[in-house]
Specification:
This protein has twelve helices and 16 strands. By secondary structure, the chain is α/β, with parallel strands linked by helices. Helix 1 packs across helix 3 and helix 2 (about 65-70) packs antiparallel against helix 3 (about 80-100). The protein starts with a strand and ends with a strand. The relative contact order is 0.16. The protein binds 2-keto-3-deoxygluconate and magnesium ion (MG).
Length: about 400
């Protein structure tokens, strides 16, 4: 079998998505997600101008060699743009191989390890009371694991509180077409957040897993304080407490708290984790297959994580397309050290562009035995939605200082 052609499909059914489609001489094609929220066109150029010419004529079954060619062979390694582009190729090649061998992708990477993939949903409200109510709605929908984010008294806006409750929309411009500006106060946040989780446990008891995302806004010692104060409420995890570039910072957090830690949605290779893994400083790996070079690299990361008692909890926000979700579900079905999968639902508009086999039932996502990834793109429908530039917000402290979003 040979790759004869490949193309990049840009669509915006409510938000921007980039999809790579690889075609072969036997008529089998595969698709992969290449979406990089807020910087989408950079990956389009990377694929069209540099990657696709290298794929033509290659045997699509040689997935490892093609991966190494695009990683080692390029000299300029790592980074979100490079690794998202490689991920798109890798997902598409697995899709092709599954279809060609008439088997679902999970069978190519170990077979079935579980009956379903536990997911966590996103409950959020403008204030404490509304967030408590929103968590109740997810419990009513059967979710076993729920992330809770709330507006903070004294701040006009913050990360994770969405207008459209089921569909998160972080990429939104302000009136002038530039990034929207959020407000931040570490003091207000740290004083408020333990109250939220106390109230959640008082209201709903111990049965459900509760999660929370700090979105990189604390220093290690502040994260240590928060982790310690949340201990009585038994969180499933506390996510992205600090800017994660400094792996050594996690030593301070770990020394002070038993609250489990998750990190990595902005990481893109195994090298971002070496200190975190070998010193057992975290509990969950958040790097998605999309951001981290696809299934080929993800298998290596999960294998190394498993040695250190670390499980997966892949990023699955709405800005990762249903193609990434399909790939993640095959992956999560096959590996042993799966923990949880983030599941922020896509809108009906998006689901129509990406017809898929996976489905939600009572707290779990399930895949079927359809060969390949069990996902497609409706190109005619995709063509109706024109790309719109949309930035992630930026974040400033109350005195105007630029901060982490
Ligand atoms: O594009 C950025 C979002 O995917 C990210 O902010 C969402 O932190 C996030 C999460 O945990 O889903
Ligand atoms: Mg996050």
């Amino acid at each position: 079998m040979k790759i004869t052609d490949a193309k990049v499909i840009v669509t915006c059914p409510g938000r921007n998505f980039i999809t790579l489609k690889i075609m072969t001489d036997e008529g089998v094609y595969g698709i992969g997600d290449a979406t990089l929220n807020g910087r989408e066109k950079s990956v389009v150029s990377y694929l069209e101008d540099y990657v696709i010419p290298c794929l033509i004529g290659r045997n699509p079954f040689d997935i490892e060699d093609i991966w190494q060619y695009l990683y080692r062979g390029v000299y300029w390694r790592r980074g979100a743009i490079t690794m998202s582009a490689i991920a798109a190729v890798d997902m598409a090649l697995y899709d092709i191989k599954g279809k060609a061998l008439n088997t679902p992708v999970y069978n190519l990477i170990g077979g079935r390890s579980r009956t379903g993939v536990m997911v966590y949903g996103h409950a959020n409200g403008a204030d404490l009371e509304q967030t408590i109510d929103e968590v109740g709605k997810y419990i009513d929908m059967g979710y076993l694991a729920i992330r809770a984010q709330s507006g903070i008294p004294g701040l006009q806006s913050t990360y994770g509180v969405a207008k459209e409750k089921m569909y998160y929309e972080p990429a939104q411009n302000d009136a002038s077409g530039l990034p929207a500006v959020n407000e931040w106060s570490t003091e207000k946040y740290l004083n408020f957040t333990p109250k939220l989780f106390k109230k959640l446990r008082d209201t709903y008891g111990e049965e459900h897993h509760f999660l929370h995302d700090c979105h990189h806004r604390l220093t290690p010692i502040e994260a240590a304080r928060l982790g310690k104060e949340l201990e009585p409420y038994h969180l499933f995890w506390l996510e992205d407490t600090v800017q994660a570039e400094l792996q050594e910072g996690f030593r301070i957090i770990r020394k002070h708290t038993t609250t489990p830690l998750a990190v990595g949605e902005v990481f893109n290779t195994i090298y971002d984790y070496t200190t975190l893994f070998t010193e057992q400083l975290i509990d969950y790996v958040r790097m998605s297959l999309l951001r981290g070079g696809g299934i080929t690299h993800g298998l290596k990361v999960a294998a190394m994580a498993g040695v250190y008692h670390i499980r997966t909890g892949f990023h699955g926000a709405t800005d990762l397309s249903p193609v990434t979700m399909a790939a993640a579900l095959h992956f999560n079905t096959a590996i042993n050290n799966f923990g949880v999968q983030e599941y922020m639902r896509h809108t009906g508009e998006t689901d129509a562009v990406f017809p898929h086999e996976y489905y939600y039932d009572k707290g779990y996502l399930h895949i079927t035995d359809k060969p390949g990834l069990g996902i497609d793109i409706d190109e005619a429908l995709a063509a109706k939605y024109e790309y719109k530039r949309a930035y992630l917000p930026v974040n400033r402290k109350l005195d105007g200082t630029m901060f982490n979003w």
